[in-house]
Structure formats: C-alpha cells, structure tokens
Design goal:
Length: 273
C-alpha cells in the first residue's frame, strides 16, 4: 500500500469518525464521562496526527531510514543514550507518573488501554517530528541543529500546553489528577520527556526510536490511569473544569476532594490532603 492510499484511508476514517461525533456525541452531557465519546474524540485527533505525519514527511523519515545506522550501533555513546532514554521513560511515566495518578477504582482493562496507548503514542511522536520538519523548512535547511531544536521545543511547549490542558484532559481523559499532581507531572515527566528525547533525536535522528519512546510513555499513562474501554458501563468521574486566561475557555482544574483528610483516593495516589 502506497503512502497516499494509506493517507486517504485515514482521511476517510477521520470523516466517518467526525460525522459520528457530530451526529451522536457533540451534545453528550458534559457532566457525565462517556467512554465512547472520549474514544471518538481521540480517534479524530489520532487521524489528524497521522495525516500531519504523512503531510510533513514523518512517514518518509520512518520508512526510508533504518532504525539506527551501523555507525550508531558501533558507538558506546549511542547505546548509553538509548538505554538511558528508555530507562528514563520507564522511571518517569511507569514510575513517577503512575505513583501520583488517581484511579478512582477504575478497572484494569489491558487490551483497550494498550491499544489506546499505542495509538496515542505513535500519533504524538509523529506530531513532534512533524514540528521538527516544519522547523527545518522554516530555516530553509540552513539552521543549525540547536536552532531547529529551540524552535521545536518552543512550539511543542505551547502545542502540548493547549492540547493537554484545554482539550485532552477535559474531553478525553477521565479525572486522574489534582492541581498538585498536574504541576508535579509537568515538571518531572512531561518537560523532561520533551527535553531529553528531542535532544536524542537531534543527535542521532532515529525517528522510529523517538516514536517508540513516546509510545512507551503514553501506553504507561493509559494503563496507570486506567483509561476506560469504549464499552465500559461503569460510572467515571469527569475532569473538573475551571476558566482559563484565554477568554474564559475551560481548562483542566484537577480533582478537589470534599473531604481531603479522609479521602482514600488521594491517599492511594500519595497526594497531599
């Protein structure tokens, strides 16, 4: 299957998914978490992310280059980097992120959570690398690596801020954070993730490894927060919304317990009460 045909099929899936959203889930009660609506919104984003990857040449980066060159694999420094970044992702997302995440007794349902994580991670990795190619194009191919890195880092800082704070964490993810854990995760997991993995890519341009790192991180997040399966019939807590500085549009505010001192969920997530 050629890239244009694959992209056309993804575009078709996006159209079907978006039509489903408009006809069925657009007016879903925003006070009740709907797993089907959340998955529908996520699929819309995944399709757009994959199409962004195709349009900005990320597919070419993955398909037309080896996972790593023979020269890379002969370097001890490259191996130190690979082992180090994978160890960091496991520590930060499967360790720190998981420890400070509220699950509210949601069910461990590995298959849909792994599938969601793989889709989310591969989509995110492609978006990040698309920004790399955008920066390269803006610089006319003449920017130094550090200049491309700085451009992409700044772009992704704002991209991820808006995406996660004002869309993902209120319309797709169930409630899984407090204001404290949001700040902690930004400082200890999300910012270091972009900083370290993007620098690894800047050094070696291993696109597939970069996308694998994002996939490992977000698959861990899906499992650890117990992302509900689309067919889940359980009651799930919707993320709390608060006004943002952008025209009062809603943003994620984090869980506020009615009885912090005796809240078992806060205690289980090692969060201050």
């Amino acid at each position: 299957m050629t890239q244009p045909i694959a992209a056309a099929l993804i575009a078709l899936l996006f159209c079907v998914s978006m039509l489903t959203y408009l006809l069925r889930y657009r007016n879903t009660d925003n006070e009740v978490y709907s797993p089907m609506a959340a998955w529908n919104r996520a699929i819309n984003y995944f399709c757009l992310a994959y199409l962004m990857g195709w349009y900005f040449g990320v597919w070419d980066m993955v398909l037309n280059n080896p996972v790593a060159t023979a020269e890379h694999m002969e370097l001890d420094q490259w191996w130190y980097w690979v082992v180090g970044v994978f160890a960091w992702i496991l520590f930060s997302y499967w360790g720190v992120w998981a420890r400070f995440t509220i699950r509210f007794d949601r069910k461990l349902d590995l298959l849909p959570q792994i599938v969601f994580g793989i889709l989310w991670g591969t989509a995110s990795g492609q978006v990040f690398l698309a920004w790399w190619n955008i920066a390269t194009a803006v610089g006319g191919g003449e920017w130094a690596t550090w200049q491309v890195y700085a451009f992409v880092y700044a772009a992704l800082t704002f991209w991820q801020w808006f995406l996660m704070d004002m869309f993902w964490d209120i319309y797709i993810s169930p409630e899984h954070d407090t204001l404290f854990s949001i700040g902690l995760k930004v400082a200890v997991t999300h910012v270091p993730n972009i900083t370290i993995t993007l620098w690894f890519f800047a050094l070696y341009e291993n696109a597939l490894i970069f996308i694998a790192l994002q996939t490992l991180a977000l698959t861990g997040a899906c499992i650890m927060m117990r992302m509900p399966a689309p067919w889940s019939k359980e009651q799930h807590l919707l993320a709390r919304k608060i006004p943002s500085v952008f025209f009062g549009l809603p943003r994620c505010g984090g869980y506020v317990s009615p009885d912090p001192e005796n809240d078992a969920y806060l205690r289980a997530a090692h969060l201050p009460r």
